Amino acid sequence: MKSKQTGITLMSFIIVLMVAGFFAYMAMKLVPAYTEFMGVQKAMGEMTSESFDGKAPEEIRRDLFKRMEYQYVGDDTVQPSDISIGQGAQGTELRVSYDKDIPFIYNIDFLIHFQKAVPIQGNIAAPN
Fold this sequence. Notes:
3 strands; 2 helices; three-stranded antiparallel sheet; elongated
């Protein structure tokens, strides 16, 4: 009785390995950006329980930057112009919206847009 061999050839294995390596490399490039955004979300979440009566928007931004520093969010990631405070559906909201450009291969980049809004408590002072 003849037995028939089953499985993949060496060439097929190399192709599967290349595809898996491509996606692993992609994950290695993208995962740090998403973990950094999770730090931004956590810093913003901590600010929802705090009252900001009489604080100026600049003070609120400074407080958010200090909290993001504790979460290992890079200084070049979120700029002061990316943070806005205004009226939203739930009252006064703190909004962060920024783009992250991640080089990938040769002339191919990933451009990821992150956006988060959380309600904040208190009456915000007018900007100077």
